[in-house]
Each structure stands twice: as C-alpha cells, then as structure tokens.
What we know:
- Chain A is α+β, with helices and mostly antiparallel strands and 228 residues long.
- Chain A has 2 domains: 5-77, Glutaredoxin (3-Layer(aba) Sandwich); 88-204, Glutathione S-transferase Yfyf (Class Pi), Chain A, domain 2.
- Chain A has helices spanning 14-26, 42-47, 67-77, 88-108, 116-136, 152-157, 163-171, 182-193, 195-198, 204-227; strands at residues 5-9, 31-34, 56-59, 62-65.
- In chain A, helix 1 links the parallel strand 1 (5-9) and strand 2 (31-34).
- The A-B interface holds A 49-50, 59, 62, 64-66, 68-70, 72-73, 76-77, 88-89, 91-93, 95-96, 99-100, 132, 136 and B 49-50, 59, 62, 64-66, 68-70, 72-73, 76-77, 88-89, 91-93, 95-96, 99-100, 132, 136.
- Chains A, B: InterPro entries: Glutathione-S-Trfase_C-like, Glutathione-S-Trfase_C_sf, Glutathione_S-Trfase, Glutathione_S-Trfase_N, GST_C, GST_C_Tau, Omega/Tau-like, Thioredoxin-like_sf.
Amino acid sequence: MMEDVKVFGLWASPFTQRVVWALKLKGVNYEYIGEDLFNKSNLLLQYNPVYKKVPVLVHDGKPIAESMVILQYIDETWPQTPLLPQDAYQRANVLFWSKFIDEKTVDMMKFFRYDGEEQEKAMKENWESLRVMEKESGLSEKKFIGGNRIGLADLALGWVAHTLEAMGDVIGVKFITPDAFPHLHSWMGNFLEIPAIKNNLPPHEHAVEYFTEKRKMFLAMNYHHHHH
Amino acid sequence: MMEDVKVFGLWASPFTQRVVWALKLKGVNYEYIGEDLFNKSNLLLQYNPVYKKVPVLVHDGKPIAESMVILQYIDETWPQTPLLPQDAYQRANVLFWSKFIDEKTVDMMKFFRYDGEEQEKAMKENWESLRVMEKESGLSEKKFIGGNRIGLADLALGWVAHTLEAMGDVIGVKFITPDAFPHLHSWMGNFLEIPAIKNNLPPHEHAVEYFTEKRKMFLAMNYHHHHH
Lengths: 228, 228
C-alpha cells in the first residue's frame, strides 16, 4: 500500500530537521512542502490551528503538530530503527531528556536575538544548560543519550551540532568545545557520523548566510523596540 | 512480588496530584513522602539533580522526575486502566494536548503571583489558553480530551478543576464558568465525578487556606522586588 506522508517545514528550522532526520533514519518516503513564514499556506493554518507553526506531519490526510509529538508518532508507526528503548525505565530516561532539551531549545536560541547585556545573560544560561547535559545526561558512558544507538533525545538535541554552530559562527562564539564539554563534543561527532543525519543537513555556508540575515533582522527589531 | 513504589511530593502541587491520581486510577499502592519546599530532603536532591523538584516517582529504587514523564512511565508499567489510546494517531492527539496543557500550567498560575497590570495581563493569557482548549481540543464531542475515558491529558489539566478554583477563590475570579467555557465546564464535572479523582483531592478549604498564605508571600516578594 502506498502511504501518503507529507512534511510541512522550513529548511532552517531545528524543529523541522528533527522530523526529517527521523523519517530518513526509518527510511520512510515523504513529500516535503517548504513553508514561507511570512506567508504561511492555508493548509498549514488548517493543519495546526493551535500554534500555526511548522513542522506538521500529515499521514494519510491526518495532521500532527509539535516536533516531539511527531517523533513519537513516527516511532510508533514505523517501528524499524527504534528511537525509544524497549525498557520502560530507559524510555522514561530518554523522554526526560527529550523534554529537557525541547524546553531549552527556544531559550538557547535567545542569545542570537540580542546583543549587549541581554546576549550575555542568554549566553550564561546556555552554558548552564549545556553543563547540566554534560554532567547529568550520562554521555560520559554512552555514545548517545539513550544508549549506543541514536534516539529521540539525540534528534531533539541535534540542532546544537548544526544550527547552534552556524549561529555561533555568525556571532563569533563557540559553545561546545572539547575543553568545556568533552562528552557533548564527542556526542556531536557521533551524531554527525550517522548517514541519515550527515546526508540531511543544510550546507553550513547556506545556514551561516541565512542566520547572518536573521541576525540583522533581530537587531533591527530590537532597536525599533527599544526606541519606540 | 511486592513492588516498592514511592512518591516524593507536595500535597498542594498540581504536578504531584497528577501522579497521585494516575496511581490511584491504576490501583497501584505506594508510599507518599511529603517534601518541605523550604528544606528539601537529600533524597529528593539526589533523585532529581536536574530540577530538584517534586514530584519524583521511585520504583524499585529507580527514580523518575517530571510529572508528564512519570505519567507515561506509570501507563507503560501498569497497563490496567490505560491513560493513552491504543491507536497511534489518537495517542499523538492526547500527547499533543498533554504537552500544550503542561506548558501552559506554570504560565496559567502567574496571575496568582501578581496584582495590578501584571495580573491583568496574566489573566488575559489565561482566558486565551482556555479559549484554545475550549475550541480546539474536541471537548464539544467527547467527555474527556482523549475520548470517553479519562486519560493523560485530562490528568494534566486536572489542576484547573481544583487548584485554579482555589486560587480564583482567594482572588475573587472564576475562569471556567458555564457561560464562558461550556465544554471545559462540562469536562470539569466529568473529571470530578471519577472516584480516583474526587477521593484524592485536598479539601477545598484547606487549599484556599494554603493559597491565601501563598498569595501574601508572593505579594510581599513583589513589593520587595519592586522597592529594592
């Protein structure tokens, strides 16, 4: 039976990338529909009336929003290459870290919106979040957060191996160095070695160019906001 | 085999109540350990080093933190009275709403911390969150968010039927009225009828007394914060 799988996304969105990586890991064919954030399609608004955001997965006409919910759905629907361990306690551990990482993702992009004191403060919070992951997520003993195979929490964290690097390059800051975060740095290497990941990353220069423009926009918005 | 199940909690915490309700619904026996938030036990800090917060479930010596992660673990470990539908798409729908509700819970308690303009603003956001749930969560057609049985998203939302009411009584505001939110109001009735819920609610006067003290503390803190 031919399945109908569509992803409404934005190529530069870390949340979209999670979904793309999961489908590629599982070998699921899908149609990708790129959205224009300044002119969202009616279909996107209809499929995700609560958040009106990408990504949305549409499977046989039925829409699912929220990247972490989509990942769990993908894992249940296409069980090959499981993203969650079989054991309930280990699953809980992966879900705990997935939630931690998901909740930190938007916060951790804040440094990129601001300069000056606000940027400093946001950067400190990033170091603190990374420190918690470095110390508590068990990466000193495992290749990936869920064990020795890539899983749900790794896909959630994946953006730090690519988007955070691109954002950092624009600003001239590097968060995950081997000195500061040796385990996260090794994890990054392990993550980027997986074919479904490395073959499905936007080119780094392309991302840097995109975020350079974004950065200008954010700073202009802040200026506007502060002066009116 | 005797199972060893412990809950580290706080009786007035909506997050603790979710876990208690789930265990009661499933008929799982457990030992309850009340924490003092101003003098947390070493065990709590050891079991939840990332957040240092209740609730923590400890099952045969293994700790799990984060109420929504705990609920999924409980549902997988004790499958009787399932909290999630069997069908993957319906599961995704319940997980979507559970996440929405969980993320709004802390925000929706903000109105209680403030007065004046800040309170007004927080209250407006509450009406908006409730409006989204009233309109989009499908409660016009179902007794509960997941269908005709109580489930994960209902346990997440449960605090609005009790804690939000108590907070509202302290301040003199009622959010979920039959006029403003008829479907949420009916849901509240359905929710409070379930024996595992109604037999495991703190007495309303007890909650009102607790939140009256909390309110004084919050306002004193704001005053201190604004004037120093």
